[in-house]
Amino acid sequence: MIAARKTRLRLAAIAAAAFALCTATQAYAQEAQVRGVLKASKVATLASETGARILDRPYSVGDAVEAGAVIVSFDCRRIEAEKKAAIAEQRSAHSELKQQRTLKSYGATGAMDVQLAEAKAAAANARLEAIDAEKSTCEITAPFAGRVSDVYAYPHETVSAGQEILTLIGSQDLEIDLIVPSIWLRWLRPGEPFTFVIDETGTAHTAQVLRVGARVDPVSQTIQVIAQLVEQPELVLSGMSGVANFDMPLADTGEISGQGGAAQ
Predict the structure, then answer these.
(1) Distance CA 182, CA 213 (A)
(2) Which of 23, 86, 109, 159 could form a disulfide with 113 if both were Cys (CB 3.0 to 4.6 A apart)?
(3) Which pTM was predicted?
(4) What span, in angstroms and rounded, lies between the C-alpha atoms of 5 and 9?
């Protein structure tokens, strides 16, 4: 009798532990879904800083570009000629300054002549620096790795300063833009993991919340959430959309239907 009673007590303890484990597991077993859109965290429309003719624009729409690659080069023969003239003027000005200082050491000239020569030398230096700065605009380099999404100017065309040449979209660190019910703020925090299934590829990827928006829309009772794929697949592009699957506490399951969506 005593042995049987001990056996029943052990079985009861095992059953209670199993029930507790099952309850804890079910607390986060409810899956909630919202739609999301992949967006590039880096986008740049690059424009000419000088008025010149385009010599080369080696990248077209869809081409991958490495960071630092030359994506546009301009005809800068005029600037190169001006630089040669500026270098000659600088040499002449410094030669004159050296001569005036030598004459002053012998008392053959005054301090005013030396000061004038110093001013000419300084002006020649400044002009050369200005031309070097202008010459640096003869090429446009990619500020980050990405893909060309749009082009607005072509080789042999003459563009003006400020005219747009092309748009570059970053191919790394794509973000997921989500609109979720504001009631999710009870449990949703940066770092929250979820699964994102992309419509265009049919593939599922692990993602996590990066940032939660700063304002709740009082009409729709939703808030913007920015997330990121844990790993960046090669075939995933900005603009693709999909479904974000979250595991949420059962206490909040009654608040999820029909309120979330992709950010516009």
Answers:
(1) 10
(2) 109
(3) 0.68
(4) 6
Q: Is 256 a residue whose pLDDT tops 60?
A: no
Burial class (CB in 10 A: 0-12, 13-18, 19+), 169: buried
Measured CA to CA, the distance from residue 81 to residue 78 in angstroms comes to 5
* pLDDT tens digit sequence for 29-43: 478 999 999 999 999
Per residue, the 3-state secondary structure of the chain, as one string, reads CHHHHHHHHHHHHHHHHHHHHHHHHHCCCEEEEEEEEEECCCEEEEECCCCEEEEECCCCCCCEECCCCEEEEECCHHHHHHHHHHHHHHHHHHHHHHHHHHHHHCCCCCHHHHHHHHHHHHHHHHHHHHHHHHHHHHEEECCCCEEEEEECCCCCCEECCCCEEEEEEECCCCEEEEEEEHHHHHCCCCCCEEEEEECCCCCEEEEEEEEEEEEEECCCCEEEEEEEECCCCCCCCCCCEEEEEEEECHHHHHHCCCCCEECC
**Cα distance between residue 122 and residue 102, in whole Å:** 18
Q: 119 Cβ partners below 8 Å, 6+ apart?
A: none
Higher confidence at residue 198 or residue 21? 198
